[in-house]
Amino acid sequence: MSSDPLTSDAIQEQRRQQMRDAILQHALDVMEERGVAGLSLGEVARRLGVKTPSLYEYFPNKKAVYDALFRMGYEQFRLEMRRLQEALPDGSMRARLRSIMAGFFTFALENRALYQLMFERPVPGFVPSEESLAVSFGMLNESYGSFTTAFIENSLQVPEGLSTAQAHDLFIAVEHGITALHLANEPDVPPAESRFGSLLDAAVDLLIRAWTDIPQEDIS
Amino acid sequence: MSSDPLTSDAIQEQRRQQMRDAILQHALDVMEERGVAGLSLGEVARRLGVKTPSLYEYFPNKKAVYDALFRMGYEQFRLEMRRLQEALPDGSMRARLRSIMAGFFTFALENRALYQLMFERPVPGFVPSEESLAVSFGMLNESYGSFTTAFIENSLQVPEGLSTAQAHDLFIAVEHGITALHLANEPDVPPAESRFGSLLDAAVDLLIRAWTDIPQEDIS
DNA sequence: ACGTTGTCCTAACGGTATTAGGCTAGCCTT
DNA sequence: AAGGCTAGCCTAATACCGTTAGGACAACGT
Question: What is the per-residue pLDDT across B96-150, written as a single tens digit (0 to 9) for each?
Fold first, then answer.
């Protein structure tokens, strides 16, 4: 044991972590350029100035790289959702849902490859590990929690036969449906004038209208 | 020119078409087993009892195979939707939408690889050709047409600021959102007890509730 | 000073898509 | 009937891919 603030073990661990991070970052770049399933370890190694087999010092195989990215994606996503949550701690339900939905959509557009990896299954043979799935469920639970809170605060009611959890899942499904169709069909059109992007606010109105007992006052 | 009912040109053309179909069918099988992006021409050739380069007599490259499957998928899908349409020519709006949504979901489950190819973009570098996109838009237009008819017949109203086309797109988005999340998260759970599959009917109720001016009579 | 260990390398294996070029059997024309 | 064209198959080769085996070397702990 040395008296250094950082033992050489710790230094080594840190360098190792830096290399892992660098690999993941370049892998993300390559996925963004070539498509999720088009990730090539050779290309990643090339960008790192290293030969391909060296990567196997840091990840046991390609699926492990995908798994790390999957988890990373959900961790980033959770942070983003939390940020949105705190930006609007107590607006109207409509304002809150709109903000969340827009944030979800923006995250997907700014992290297309990551989003596809997280919400679709574009890589043959890759299934997220138990631990990574736990991270993703953690995110989902957090989302569910804040959704429920907002739901109650705004005294919305789900129809008979539907749980709040199901209402939340429906919300996620609508978010993902719009997002996925936009990414698949008009990936380069800006959200505002996009066929599906322009549905985001309408979808929120739909949900609120259906779950509010009091009829809207401004119906034409 | 011969007086045969089939000229040898026609016979040859027919044999060629049979081979193309056989390739596509085996390609579909392989995709179902290995994942959409996991399609291997070598494996297809093996199953056909032929060497890989022979396939290039029938398709210029792998992307052309994907393109043919993409188009085939939408043609099948159109037939399926038409079948559903004719099975329920004039039920209530709720019954019709439920039937369409269930049919959509079932088609996706029974043709997972095809569905992924049609609605997501799992293959790096593959973008459907103009003609194939035309087929897919044709299907969408047909869907839009019957949706609009049913909408008017049942005197539903979209909220101000939303076109019927957008209402239709929202319907598609909800269908796809539920379906995609089911396929990604619980592919092997039967729809009825699946987390997302069980939302299908709830989604229809949601849409109808939001788009009907007359409040429901059976609100608890 | 010695040995261990982490990190890089080269070489190799079996897989992928794709192209080049040769063989052959069946058809069309003369 | 004979000759030539061609569709459809083949083998061989190229360049990539992920992955494993095994060796070189430098930094570290004993």
Answer: 999 999 999 999 999 999 999 999 999 999 999 999 999 999 999 999 998 888 8
Chain D footprint positions (protein CB, under 7 Å): 7-12, 16-22, 27-29
pLDDT in tens, A24-52: 999 999 999 999 999 999 999 999 999 99
Contact assessment for residue B174 and residue B203, using Cβ atoms and an 8 Å cutoff: yes
User: Straight-line distance from CA A46 to C1' D30, in Å?
Assistant: 38
Token output for A149 = 């809170």
Closest CA to A173 of B184, B135, B130, B165: B184
How far apart CA A166 and CA B143 sit, in angstroms, is 27
At A10, is the pLDDT very low, low, confident or very high (cuts 50, 70, 90)?
Answer: confident
Find, among B87, B80, B85, B105, the residue nearest to B146 by Cα: B85
Which residues neighbour A56 within 8 Å (Cβ) at sequence distance 6 or greater? none
User: Given an 8 Å threshold on Cβ–Cβ distance, is B37 in contact with A124?
Assistant: yes
DSSP A192: G
Q: Tokens at residue B181, please?
A: 């999340």
CB contact under 8 Å between A181 and B119, yes or no, is yes
How close, in Å, is residue A145 to chain B by CA atoms? 17
Find out whether B163 and B154 touch, Cβ atoms under 8 Å: no
Residue B78, both tokens? 């159109």
Task: Among A159, A161, A195, select the one facing B169 at the smallest CB separation.
Answer: A195
Q: What is the pTM of this model?
A: 0.92
Q: What is the residue whose two structure tokens read 């109105």?
A: A205
